[in-house]
């Protein structure tokens, strides 16, 4: 008998988790091994349940999907992370891929597309849903003149929410020195002198939306 693909569902909405579980359990080659409500729980359950695939939402309270993806890929490299989210933002896609996500699928995608993405991820094949790939290619084709990297944008978003360097470092699982380095690059690229002016410049140019 062929081994089933073990899937851990990560989403902060119970209705969404129930719906996804129902869809996956209708497929003979999938087995839902658990559910997590945030990134922190996802990392913990990945270590305990050893799923083949973590189906990861991005925007959740506490530890978000990008930070959780990065930790899972570092601590459990044999587990693949497939992002399933409502966000088709080029910045979100880049951050997820940079964190180690194998694929990226939107929640409104046809269920057969999701099934195919899970099967591809289980085989270690990178996959972006067609509409997601289009958004990503558009971002690559027409990059902002500021040229902020995905990680620099992520740091700036946390700054815009009022977080200090220590809290940002803890959230993103990087050092404070790395946060400071990213901010210096942001200041240089935006021509800003400090945190407030960097956020203002990014919002004015449309590269940061809160």
UniProtKB/TrEMBL annotation:
Keyword entries, A-Z: DNA-binding, Phosphoprotein, Transcription, Transcription regulation
GO biological process, one term: phosphorelay signal transduction system
Chain positions with 4-aspartylphosphate modification: 57
MF GO annotations: DNA binding
Domain Response regulatory: 6-122
SMART domains for this protein: HTH_LUXR, REC
Tree of life domain: Bacteria
Annotated HTH luxR-type domain residues: 138-206
One Pfam assignment: Response_reg
InterPro entries in UniProt: CheY-like_superfamily (IPR011006), NreC/VraR/RcsB-like_REC (IPR058245), Sig_transdc_resp-reg_C-effctor (IPR016032), Sig_transdc_resp-reg_receiver (IPR001789), Tscrpt_reg_LuxR_C (IPR000792), WalR-like (IPR039420)
Classification via CDD domains: LuxR_C_like, REC_NarL-like
PANTHER family tied to this protein: TRANSCRIPTIONAL REGULATORY PROTEIN NARL-RELATED, TWO-COMPONENT RESPONSE REGULATOR
Protein name: Response regulator
